[in-house]
Amino acid sequence: MSVQQTPRSIASGSEAALTNVSELAGQVFNVLAAGADSIGLEDFKRCSTSLAQLSEDFAADPNEAFNRIDQDGDQRIDREEFGVEVELIRGLLGTRKLTAALSQVNEDLRVKSVDGDAEMTMK
Q1: What is the mean pLDDT of the segment spanning 70-83?
Q2: Cα separation of 113 and 54, whole Å?
Q3: Using alpha carbons only, what angle is made at residue 122 by residues 121 and 123, rounded to the nearest 5 degrees?
Q4: 3-class SS at 123?
Q5: Are 95 and 21 in contact (CB under 8 A)?
Q6: Which range has highest mean pLDDT (8-12, 13-17, 19-23, 113-117)?
Q7: Residues 6+ apart with CB under 8 A from 17
Q8: Per residue in 26-43, pLDDT tens?
Q9: Could you tell me if 90 and 11 are in contact, meaning their C-beta atoms sit under 8 angstroms apart?
């Protein structure tokens, strides 16, 4: 029997809510990385309007946001770097709002398979 998440349980920062945030962030990362192990600047910029639901500076200044997230300066955002940024955003928004924002970003950045390759489509 699965437990239905409610806004109150998500807001509580429970382990289930944090797992949900982690899963949603992983799904967003997978869409942005399009099957790769990291996200490049062009992919980040292409999706910055949708990502602005997480943090407005993603759209306002995507180059600065990308460079801030890219902690090792290799011009790629890896899964760990993306996770660190999501945790910083969670500290600002709270778990419930971040979960809702990640869900919306996931919906906006749909993946469809074309000849086995992932392709981002904007709603």
Answers
A1: 97
A2: 25
A3: 120
A4: coil
A5: yes
A6: 19-23
A7: 5, 9, 10, 11, 95, 96, 99
A8: 999 999 998 899 999 999
A9: no
Amino acid at site 23: E
User: For residue 66, what are the contacts with CB-CB under 8 A and spacing of at least 6?
Assistant: 41, 44, 45, 77
Distances (CA, A) of 11 to 25, 110, 114, 115: 17, 26, 37, 40
Q: Which helix (H) or strand (E) holds 90?
A: helix 79-93
Model confidence at 16, in pLDDT bands (50, 70, 90)? Answer: low
Measure CA 28 to chain center: 4
Computed over its alpha carbons, how large is the radius of gyration of the chain? 14
Identity of residue 13:
G
Residues in Cβ contact with 62 at an 8 Å cutoff, skipping those fewer than 6 apart:
41, 44, 45, 48
> Model confidence over 44-64: pLDDT tens digits?
999 999 999 999 999 999 999
